[in-house]
Design brief:
single chain, 97 residues, mainly beta, 6 strands, 0% helix
């Protein structure tokens, strides 16, 4: 999982890290107010806005929700080739021309 700290007062000021296999991470940011994002591919981002940090913080256990989109349906359309090559001849299907 990717953890991103975005300084709420300075646009474009980012810090971040990647968690280990257990989801643990540790890095230093200067004291201040941050928007914190927890991101992982195919999961919805969890965001904590305008949180002030002055000392070590523990976010506890966070649960990410799967971000899946369901299709209503898939339509398959098959078409015959306009030319079929057989052992001794070529057949032209004129219905599609």
């Amino acid at each position: 999982m990717c953890v991103v700290f975005e300084n709420a007062n300075k646009e474009g000021a980012l810090s971040g890290s990647v968690t280990d296999m257990n989801g643990d991470f540790s890095f230093e940011v200067p004291s201040g107010t941050y928007n914190v994002r927890f991101e992982y591919i195919s999961f919805k981002t969890v965001e904590i806005k305008n949180r002030t940090f002055t000392e070590d913080a523990n976010f506890g256990t966070l649960f990410l929700e799967a971000d899946i989109a369901q299709l209503e349906g898939v339509e398959l359309i098959a078409e015959r080739s306009t030319v079929e090559i057989k052992l001794d001849k070529r057949v032209y299907n004129v219905g599609k021309i």
